[in-house]
């Protein structure tokens, strides 16, 4: 074999995701895993039953339609109307994907030419860097800074160049919990229109906003035809393993994203698509109770982390809390997280790996609170050892 590296240059440095490393550590040590963002309780029983029924009735066991089953596309359209007053055509403006992850990758592969610049908030959700890289794009970070992680809109404006093709936005934002305000959304929309940019919005935490509210950028003036709006069932219904996600956008944008998506998975999650169609039609009570429950968990863990000596940035949304460990006399989040399971039996993830600028997040650590109350209490108790 030649001395040429096996992994191509585009993916060089992306390595194993931090979630895999930390979840393996949790398994190996028996520590409580507050690293990876998956709930430890499955979603509604009725929705699980709907999946079983679909399987038994032979719905979705063979390749579903490339755009997604009509029941789900219609349910997505109705969801967008119910919560945001938005109208989409289920036949041309909705695309079902293998989670939001595939939708993001397909959007980058469809919309970018090699060398195109993509502006994204850092810390980034880790698939963004990979998706942009696989498409040959160049990521341009816009750093969100503690304590409130608001985007610097002047810096955003200054980051746009003639090579900028799109903005890849995430609100509610993982890992910081920042939720864009209506003034920020307006400024971003005006910039996108002025500079003729596309915008891809990752809205997977749309139903987990505790302070403020979620407004899809696509609802703002001038954005309907330049926004690819992405969401997923994993977080909202606590079925992250089902990998049912979707795109809502204008017909030409959906057609573009579908072109790359069809050669990634073609389709996925057949029977689960029918179940998620039912989930999306759950009454408002479900959504309210889900959010209230997570808000209680946020407060429980935030108080525990504060008592343990962390500086806590209470999130406006998502199910993550970003903390700073400098207050504990620590200097390096990655080293801290690697040692934490042995020190006190808890796993967290270092935010530093989500930044291009390693100094910006050097002492930030993220904890997930989508866990049972007694698990959060136990983890908080264990973390108190750090304070002593
Ligand atoms: C911001 C963000 N986007 C996308 C995803 C992935 O969504 P899915 O599981 O639907 O692919 C996650 C999961 O953690 C996330 O936090």
UniProtKB/TrEMBL annotation:
The UniProt catalytic activity note for this protein reads: N-succinyl-(2S,6S)-2,6-diaminopimelate + 2-oxoglutarate = (S)-2-succinylamino-6-oxoheptanedioate + L-glutamate
Tell me the cofactors it needs: pyridoxal 5'-phosphate
Xref: InterPro entries:
Aminotransferase_I/II_large, Kynurenine-oxoglutarate_AT, PyrdxlP-dep_Trfase, PyrdxlP-dep_Trfase_major, PyrdxlP-dep_Trfase_small
Q: What is this protein called?
A: Probable N-succinyldiaminopimelate aminotransferase DapC
Q: Does the keyword DNA-binding apply?
A: no
What does the UniProt record say this protein does? Involved in the lysine biosynthetic pathways. It catalyzes the transfer of an amino group from L-glutamate to N-succinyl-2-l-amino-6-oxoheptanedioate (N-succinyl-2-l-amino-6-ketopimelate) in a PLP-dependent reaction, yielding as products N-succinyl-l-2,6-diaminoheptanedioate (N-succinyl-diaminopimelate) and 2-oxoglutarate.
Entry's localization field: Cytoplasm
The protein's annotated pathway: Amino-acid biosynthesis; L-lysine biosynthesis via DAP pathway; LL-2,6-diaminopimelate from (S)-tetrahydrodipicolinate (succinylase route): step 2/3
- Which parts of the sequence belong to the Aminotransferase class I/classII large domain? 31-373
Cite the CDD domains for this sequence. AAT_like
Sorted alphabetically, which Pfam families does this protein's record hold? Aminotran_1_2 (PF00155)
Coiled-coil blocks: none
Instruction: Cite the record's note on assembly.
Output: Homodimer.
Molecular function (GO) terms for this protein are: kynurenine-oxoglutarate transaminase activity; pyridoxal phosphate binding; succinyldiaminopimelate transaminase activity
Superkingdom of the source? Bacteria
Q: What class of enzyme is it?
A: transferase
Q: Which PANTHER family match?
A: FI04487P
């Amino acid at each position: 074999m030649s001395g040429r590296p096996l992994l191509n240059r585009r993916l060089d440095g992306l390595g194993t995701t931090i979630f895999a490393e930390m979840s393996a550590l949790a398994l190996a040590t028996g520590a409580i895993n507050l690293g990876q963002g998956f709930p430890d309780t499955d979603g509604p029983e009725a929705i699980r039953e709907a999946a079983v029924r679909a399987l038994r009735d032979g719905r979705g066991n063979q390749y579903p339609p490339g755009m997604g089953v009509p029941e789900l596309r219609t349910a997505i359209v109705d969801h967008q109307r119910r919560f945001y007053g938005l109208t989409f055509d289920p036949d041309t403006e909705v695309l079902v994907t293998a989670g939001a992850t595939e939708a993001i990758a397909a959007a980058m592969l469809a919309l970018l030419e090699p060398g195109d610049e993509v502006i994204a908030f850092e810390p980034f959700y880790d698939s963004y860097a990979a998706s942009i890289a696989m498409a040959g794009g160049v990521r341009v970070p816009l750093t969100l800074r503690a304590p409130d992680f608001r985007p610097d809109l002047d810096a955003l404006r200054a980051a746009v160049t003639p090579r900028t093709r799109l903005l890849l936005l995430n609100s509610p934002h993982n890992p910081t919990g920042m939720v864009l305000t209506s003034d920020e959304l307006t400024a971003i929309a005006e910039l996108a229109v002025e500079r003729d940019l596309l915008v891809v919005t990752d809205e997977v935490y749309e139903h987990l906003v505790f302070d403020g509210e979620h407004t899809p950028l696509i609802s703002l003036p001038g954005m309907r035809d330049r926004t690819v709006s992405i969401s997923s069932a994993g977080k909202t219904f606590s079925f992250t393993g089902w990998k049912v996600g979707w795109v809502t956008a204008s017909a030409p944008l959906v057609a573009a994203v579908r072109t790359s998506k069809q050669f990634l998975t073609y389709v996925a999650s057949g029977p689960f698509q029918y179940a998620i169609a039912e989930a999306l039609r759950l009454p408002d009570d479900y959504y309210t109770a889900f959010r209230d429950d997570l808000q209680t968990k946020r407060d429980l863990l935030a108080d525990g982390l504060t008592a343990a000596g962390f500086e806590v940035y209470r999130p406006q949304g998502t199910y993550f809390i970003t903390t700073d460990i400098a207050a504990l006399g620590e200097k390096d989040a990655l080293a801290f997280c690697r040692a934490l399971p042995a020190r006190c039996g808890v796993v967290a993830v270092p935010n530093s790996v989500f930044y291009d600028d390693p100094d910006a997040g050097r002492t930030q650590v993220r904890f997930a609170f989508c866990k049972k109350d007694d698990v959060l209490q136990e983890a908080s108790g264990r973390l108190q050892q750090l304070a002593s």
